[in-house]
Amino acid sequence: MVKSAIYILAALLLCIGLFVGVDIYLDKQFEEFHDAVETLYKKVEDETANREDGYAVKEMWTDKKSKLHIFVPHNDISYVDYWLNEACALIYCGNYDLALGKIEVLKEISKTLPGGYEFKLENVF
Fold first, then answer.
1. Residue 30 region, left (φ>0) first, then alpha (ψ -120 to 50), else beta?
2. How confident is the model over 20-56, as pLDDT tens digits?
3. Residue 17 Cα distances to 14, 24, 65, 80, angstroms
4. Are 61 and 33 in contact (CB under 8 A)?
C-alpha cells in the first residue's frame, strides 16, 4: 500500500514537472517568434521591409514548427503558416498596408496561442 502511494506520487510529480517544462518551452519559442514578427512589423510600417525580411521570419518559423508539432495541434500551426505566407506575399508585392494587417494578426496569435496549452485549471478540465 505504501509503495503504491509512493509510485503514484512520483508519477504525479513527474507529470507536473513535464507539464511545467513544456509550458516554459512553448513560452520561449513563441516569445522568440513574437519578437521576430514585431521586428518585421516595424520594418513594414516604415516600408523598408523586403522579401528577405519576410522569408527570414518564415524560415525561423519553419525551424520552430518542426519541433512544436509535438506539443501544438497541426491546425494551430497551419493557421500561423497561413497568415505568415499571406504577409510574405504582400511584402513581396510591396503592398505594405495589407501586410500590416496580416502581421498584426500574427502578433496576436503568437501572444495568445501558447496560453491555450498552459498547465492551468481551465485547460485541464
1. alpha
2. 898 999 999 999 999 999 999 999 999 999 989 999 9
3. 5, 11, 23, 28
4. yes
DSSP assignment, residue 114?
Answer: G
Task: Provide the whole-model pTM.
Answer: 0.84
- Cα maximum dimension of the chain: 69
Q: Tell me if 29 sits within 8 A of 111, measured CB to CB.
A: no
Q: List CB contacts of 109: < 8 A, sequence separation 6 or more.
A: 79, 80, 83
Distances (CA, A) of 121 to 21, 75, 82, 116, 124: 17, 23, 30, 11, 5
- Rounded Cα–Cα distance for residues 87 and 58 (Å): 10
What the block records as the C-alpha cell of 44 is 513594414
The residue type at 3 = K
Report the C-alpha gap between 114 and 27 in whole angstroms: 6
- The residue assigned the cell 518564415 is 58
